[in-house]
Amino acid sequence: MLGDGLLDALSMFWQTLWALFLGFALSGAVQAFVTREHMQRMFGDHRPATIAKATFWGMVSSSCSYAASALAKTLFRRGADFTTSLVFMIASTNLVIELGLVLWLLLGWQFALAELVGGAIMIALLGIIGPRVLGGRTAQEAREHLERSESGPSGGHGGHAHHHDASGAGGAAPLRERLRTRAGWGDAAGYMISDLTMIRKELVIGFLVAGFIAVLVPTAVWQSLFLTGHGFWSSLENVIVGPFLAIISFVCSVGNVPLAATLWHGGASFGGVVAFVFADLIALPLLAIYRGYFGLRVTARILVVFWATMSAAGLAVEYLFRWARIPEPAPIRAMADHGFAWNHTTWLNLAALALFAVMYGLYRARRREAAAEGRYAKDPICGMQVEIANAPAHRRRDGEDFYFCSDRCARHFDERESKTMSENLGMPGSTPPAMQHDPNGTHRDPVCGMTVSPETAAASFEHEGETYYFCSRGCRTAFELKPEAFLTAQ
Hints:
With 490 residues, the chain is mainly alpha-helical. It has helices at 2-33, 36-40, 48-59, 65-77, 82-94, 97-107, 109-133, 137-151, 175-179, 182-216, 219-225, 232-249, 257-266, 270-278, 284-294, 296-323, 344-373, 407-425, 473-481, 483-487, and strands spanning 376-378, 385-387, 393-397, 400-404, 443-444, 451-452, 459-463, 466-470. The protein has 20 helices and 8 strands. The longest helix has 35 residues, at 182-216. The radius of gyration is 25 Å and the shape is globular.
């Protein structure tokens, strides 16, 4: 039975391989040839025209939920309207090309069309509701919390405020010239590989979960979750339950489409599956990220608004398609039933793999050039290539700079560094600082023992009425997480 689940997962992946590559390749090209600064200048308000522009640029941007949340945060921090930033984030995960192609292949063209129609409805609803529920004082609260979080030990760039053209070296050159250069397409390949790197876990989890659920979970279980036979009330219950399953599934971005295929086979309504697909942005890991960016109260409002608009869009699409007499696709059983036939899908996948090899070669060559130019760095957590000028997060440890694809990776880095410091403190031969300050006015960093001056200390922290000074923000982070571990020997 486990073998059947794995075969189902592999079959779904093989069926969608060429579409995934095409979508990520097109997204990488747009990211390489269109500057971020150009996008950010357009998002200063929430007028209908601005919402439409944010939707378009989101559609051709990164499909990774984590990257989308980081970029939306960056847009908001640089002056974009809060609602417009959230619209950009929704469009960049729910209206991207690769999502539509995978939906078409796994669920049918009706779901691909529902993605576009429902996405437009959801964004229109957010454009109406957002400024009233997430604007004004709420947006100001989100901005203030973001500024505080980025100025503290777990913040983002800190003083790293310079920005370059997102198109990299030669970015000032006209678009037509950039399209003819190997460096330009090398950057496009870099963005494509970066998107795939960021989303690889979600894709693997999504296909595996869908494959095993299709085999291990009886249809009766899904039928018990999704009501049927009660007309409108069944449809309403389905579009509410769909996002809830997305929240607890932990699967984001394109990775939740295979699971959506399993739900569709299990008896969920058309609108319920659509709402589930749209709800990738309120999975628990993303909600934790929003809380770090904007605070708990604002995150709760985002959850309510997103859940409501996603459910409403799913319900509207279901009834709109019924009115237009668009037939619902037949539930698709496991892809493994069809086997790996030598057909047009096989040829498309082979062509995609060949083109991927070419793009990967361009990426490797461009990475070597960019490393020599000092434009890119490697995220120490996930390993993806990060453009230094536009990195969502930055840390400095012992004179060395680290750049991250998202604040999520930066937090993992902080936690890893804090754990390492705590372990080193308890190692034989390691001696915690015996005293916090010397008579001559200098202080000892309670974490690493380094002598620091209050005037030049990188960070400080007040604990039980006493101020401690640190050589770096990393030491402050370690101390703030568990001060008693560093004060026991004092």
